[in-house]
Predict the 3D structure of the following.
Amino acid sequence: MNHYVNYEGKKISFSVPRQWNLISSEDKPPTSGVNDPVQEIKRALDHPIGSSRIEELARPGMEVVLVFDDLQRPTPVHLALPEIISRLNRAGIPDERITGICAVGTHPIPSIEQLETKVGKEAFSRLQGRIFSHDPRASNNVIIGKTHRGVLVEINRRVAFADLIIGVGECMPHPVAGFGGGCKIIMPGVCSYRSVADHHFSWVRHRHSRVNVRQGNCFYEEIVDAGRLGRLAFKLDFILNEKKEVIKTFAGDPVAAHNEACDFAASLYLMPLPKLADVTISAAFPLEMGVQATKSLTMASFCTRSGGAIIWVAPQKQAGSILPLIKEMGSDESAGDFHRRLIRGDVPDHLRQFGISYIMQVVYFKELSEKFTVVHVTDGLSPDQVNMMKFSCSPNIDDAIRQVSEKIPEADVAVFPSGGNIIPEVR
């Protein structure tokens, strides 16, 4: 019987050995976007979850900060901000008392031209001179307290002293935090570098720090703590499809609204499995570009038994963004040794320019190479580069299956044709 994976818009067919028992091969169909995304935004803002409307939260004389995610997220901030600003106006707050902050976390700081693209011409004009990017290394970031587990929370000065804080972001499956969105706009969004490092490096390898887990996920729970300490009052989160179209929006209390957004996202992407797979075949599609392509590999690791194999299918045609990661993978340090090095603040020089979430990928990948046999099907990376990652390289999926079947002749097998947008869950 033939199966397939999606690869650069094409279906690549293959068959598996007779001794392999297929436990999943479902492909998630694409979800269409709404016809009128602005009306969808208005609907969510008119009916907030667990919160009063923005017009009722705001009071004349308040200084309001609108915090929005950066260019590494496809969130249509340009559609949301004009509607939010107009609602603040109706509550008696003029444009001049509203500031916009791009929540970069520890990502590169965008130029003013890039900010204009992100927020759109209307919002950029109305907030002229009052749109800024957060600087995680700024000396004037403000310490506002500690989470209940002891992570120091140090945030952007303008956010710390605002009267009302409203966030705009995107809710999507996240390999460690459970889901993106919610209070992540505060932590790591507008936190200092040392706060983000303390939080991320402390909880990155906890067993419950994983996709589709919130309760008991210390990584996520500390983010919520930081959001509450940072006084995030209201959040608008988008659910987008792979075409960056708006599927649905959720607004209101940053935790209550986010919980409903997470449940909705899970309904779109959840892939139930009866057991852990011995072999998982996962394609990066539809997230085949740069570091995003690694998501399908991470997701596959959640449903593959220790000592099993993952066949990771990703073009890597624009692999420049992961080359520094590959270089560090070539070192002799174990995942544990590298993690301890990060805890000490000893970040390799060639990685210092990157965000903390990127640097954490080195820990993930070293751990994957220690835990699984990974065969990478790609025509964008050379065999030497793949081998540097401690993975095996294969020119095509049939050859990869041959390699793995020689090591694991009998196997329960999961196939994810579009592994970049699924949440595997073993039940």
In short: The radius of gyration is 22 Å.
